[in-house]
Amino acid sequence: MSKIRAAVVGLGYWGPNLARNVSQASADYELVGLCDKDEKRLGRIGELYPQTKRYTDVDALLREGKPDLVCIATPVGAHHPLAKAALEAGAHVLCEKPLAATVAEAAELVELAHKKDRRLFVDHTFAYTGAVRAIRKAYVDRALGDLFYVDSVRINLGLFQPDVDVIWDLAPHDLSILSYVIGRRVVSVKATGSSHNPRGFADVAYLTVEYEGGLQAHLHLSWLSPVKVRRMIFSGTNSSLIYDDLEASEKLKIYDHGVTFDVADVEARKQVLVNYRRGDMRAPALDNREALTTELKDIAAALRGGPLPPAMGEDGLEVVRVLEAAGASLAKDGARITIS
Amino acid sequence: MSKIRAAVVGLGYWGPNLARNVSQASADYELVGLCDKDEKRLGRIGELYPQTKRYTDVDALLREGKPDLVCIATPVGAHHPLAKAALEAGAHVLCEKPLAATVAEAAELVELAHKKDRRLFVDHTFAYTGAVRAIRKAYVDRALGDLFYVDSVRINLGLFQPDVDVIWDLAPHDLSILSYVIGRRVVSVKATGSSHNPRGFADVAYLTVEYEGGLQAHLHLSWLSPVKVRRMIFSGTNSSLIYDDLEASEKLKIYDHGVTFDVADVEARKQVLVNYRRGDMRAPALDNREALTTELKDIAAALRGGPLPPAMGEDGLEVVRVLEAAGASLAKDGARITIS
Amino acid sequence: MSKIRAAVVGLGYWGPNLARNVSQASADYELVGLCDKDEKRLGRIGELYPQTKRYTDVDALLREGKPDLVCIATPVGAHHPLAKAALEAGAHVLCEKPLAATVAEAAELVELAHKKDRRLFVDHTFAYTGAVRAIRKAYVDRALGDLFYVDSVRINLGLFQPDVDVIWDLAPHDLSILSYVIGRRVVSVKATGSSHNPRGFADVAYLTVEYEGGLQAHLHLSWLSPVKVRRMIFSGTNSSLIYDDLEASEKLKIYDHGVTFDVADVEARKQVLVNYRRGDMRAPALDNREALTTELKDIAAALRGGPLPPAMGEDGLEVVRVLEAAGASLAKDGARITIS
Amino acid sequence: MSKIRAAVVGLGYWGPNLARNVSQASADYELVGLCDKDEKRLGRIGELYPQTKRYTDVDALLREGKPDLVCIATPVGAHHPLAKAALEAGAHVLCEKPLAATVAEAAELVELAHKKDRRLFVDHTFAYTGAVRAIRKAYVDRALGDLFYVDSVRINLGLFQPDVDVIWDLAPHDLSILSYVIGRRVVSVKATGSSHNPRGFADVAYLTVEYEGGLQAHLHLSWLSPVKVRRMIFSGTNSSLIYDDLEASEKLKIYDHGVTFDVADVEARKQVLVNYRRGDMRAPALDNREALTTELKDIAAALRGGPLPPAMGEDGLEVVRVLEAAGASLAKDGARITIS
Question: Residue C190 in 3-state DSSP?
Fold first, then answer.
């Protein structure tokens, strides 16, 4: 079976990880091109892959390198033109998240991919981690039961991004995890936030995201916390789960706790007996492989006719919809913005 | 100097702590009466204080016991009639928080105390802990600098309260701590929440509280979390602070971290340089005395002409105002409710 | 069924807990006497139990109070004369640990109890906690498999004891837990330690305790650690267990981890393949009742003809044997002291 | 200034880190050779350094590559012949720890380096970390005061080494840290341990190491612990310190705690008053640079006439002396082995 000719565009923070993983997955891929406008950066990374051609111009890459798959890891503003060019050149695309800077752009990419019959993958990396896959399993298998609510805290000191606010920087992680785990659409968003930097972007924000069926998720996002926290709570009727991504081991703790209500007289609403159950806690052993390794394997399988992986263009578009709605809510003092 | 004749009304969860502390503070107080409608409960606690008279009726207590100070630790619905009766009988009052079930009731009590020239103390216990006093010091001394924002997480599994929702149960702690630490008034409140119990009370809620000067505090309150968390973040320009009340030692961690912005060209908003400083962390040694011990000492001093302690009727009224506004916001899908 | 007439002798740190628990266990016990040489202390505690007679002299207590059970919670030096007097007066005894200051004294008490047909219980409190009972269950049920080794760290800052060294102060906890969990006798002890106080007692010590079957337990005991640690590791062939007594919840963590060895050529000892298994971690829900409550219930049952509880005079004697041997090893630069 | 021509011999676990750091330190070094007997491994690592020559034979490397510095990262058994060859060829040597498999071999290397006037550096990496440098500072500056004792726990599940026991595998870390921090010689060692693997090597061991001046350090070393722990306690008269190498931030916590003794009557040894002081805890900000980066910079400076770095051949020899003595103690049931 011939190898997938893959190229990486954008060699800032994330691109080198893509390049390394593509290169290591040599059974499936051949790294045929590296592209960055910054020649120094291109040289520094390129040196590690002496067999791979280097480009400062994406058109040259597409024309000469003829890649089957273009992995895009640039700032979000460049996603749309690059992905569009790649799709039009007949390549499949793996695009960093968020998929694009506006819903219109993201929707255009999704449509274009359909039209060209190319695959548009979105790099929702967390959906390929052992931890998030185990959360999805606990949800789908009904170990959690029905969800009461989800709370996520994703805070740290900096890094202030030059081009996006804290919502666009951090919320895509939570939104893509939730979309993958519960498989439901977002119905509405409310956002509050504040800005303490000269650019006037929000650097602290809180989102209340309502999903189909009434489930609420709440996100605390901040670049101004003295400590780094990556912690999600999934509170369910059968059991509850805490996912702390900074734990070296025991990232996931499933608490066999529960609350049930006995109502003797619903009319009167007086005779409600609350029963608490506190059972064992279990931290399941997790698949520790690097998420990108799994992701590239799944993508290769999809390109060879296998099932599609969990994060396609439509999923990326959904995330952008929520981000855009959150911005609208911020501008309206936290009003609920409905997503059609 | 004659002792303060104190009585405790309501011997459920908190009342016995009041009784024990009054009894131990024998240099300042004499425990002259215990009162509870439930005779069994009254007997069980009363047994520990053989010298103290027992009452099932508060009027009998006021008439016969002639207490100087009545400590009220009943469900919130009874605060108003009991405190009113005590003040009218000429006693000072120490009332459990929240001060009353409505702003109207709380305001009436504050006014009555003024008219009768009696002291109305509110039992904002946290304001008397070593940890919260150290936070106030760090704020007042400018160790924190200006505050960016405050975030509080106060969550656990249950205990569902029969008479109030999760906001009335848990938010008074945060609101009284914040009021004491920063000494500013609340300007507006937004609340979202959800209910998963047959009574229809909110059991998960998020509050965004804006203080004078634009400072925002955000509260996550829940009876449906698998784990108990009591954690406040005070993020400041000079340093930041984490207060974890469940830590046995090191409840307070002050991070000498900071962010500053160098703006080369404000017009262009392009040349913003973000500088991060990461210095030492310090966990100050804290006064470990039981808060109630300090509180009763401060109250005794006030009753003997000393300065008033930090939590008076007005402070309690302010908390009730915020709670009532939060309820109004909940009912209006999270709309901002301004507090005049 | 008539109640057991119980008395408490020694009202320092632990005695008041005994008194409170005896008093609360009113279905089984009547608290008929409190005894302490220090009249002030006796008065302060005695006040809480107005129905109970107070004694400064144990003979008067035994003569007048005629207790069925005497609970002894004095410094260790007084255990022997007090327990002896109580047994000779026909009472059963519950004695604080360590049972006596020497093997000779402890052995005499065990013998005397047999001769008088009275029960001599030793207050190995940990054997009645939910955590230690769960460890025993994990061991007995073979969840742990065979034990590789046990390591315990029991360290803190102070409290320096006036009458015993750090080994006599802290090791009884570990030794009684181990004796209860694994049910084996100690074969030999080695001890090293050092002293940094003017009395010359060891304030830091390490014990290596060998049990029947070759199992080794190692104890780190210290009054000179900046932090308090209470942590035991039970490393086993099937799974391993960490018991952290300072954890509020999740005191016990059972790791379904393992190591096995495949030996291709034992002669050569070269072809050893080591296989690691890393499975789930589980923190079982534990019985949270106060240990003394369980202990007094078990003792009452035993006095009424039920099975004997896990910590009898012989067990207390065994602990004293190990302590004495540890002292001998300390004196011989850590030489192995065999226990016959 | 001409670059130091450096080569790396042994490309197993640690060698690739050396190669990467030498390559990155391109201001000081030129990576002129990579050497490993295993051609596959050599190819895999060599690919990353296309400019660097590859050798399967060290003699060829020395002859053709003419390196100024040979970095040796092979199993310990090969250190002696390789370092000897390199020194005799006129190269300086940076040797992985432990320096050699026996005292005799290590001593021969130290002597040879002197004779040839070459530098023999030992790769005691921890001495170049920000954390250990901060510990040394706290000790040298007398922030800790005099040390009461040091305790280290270095345990994990595996990795069983094929050629050495758990002492040779793990103790070099502790011994080199201690040697660097306190700058004293070891006087004697006692070791106990046990073996649970078919090879019969110790896989659990405890060392008691006595330093000049009577200071005792105690090491718990294990390949059979369910959890990984890397934790040292330095207990001192002025303050105490905990170093937890697995903490992402706050690796070092300095506790301003203390114990002092007031002795009223030394003769009687009765009137000893123990005073406890519990002050702040401080976690200093640490230099987070990779230790190898610092180490290579210091080595380059030394080779250019600057001061020698903290870990030279003599330091490596000292560690091997302690390891050999520990083995002798193990064989003699834990007897104290004096180091001359």
Answer: strand
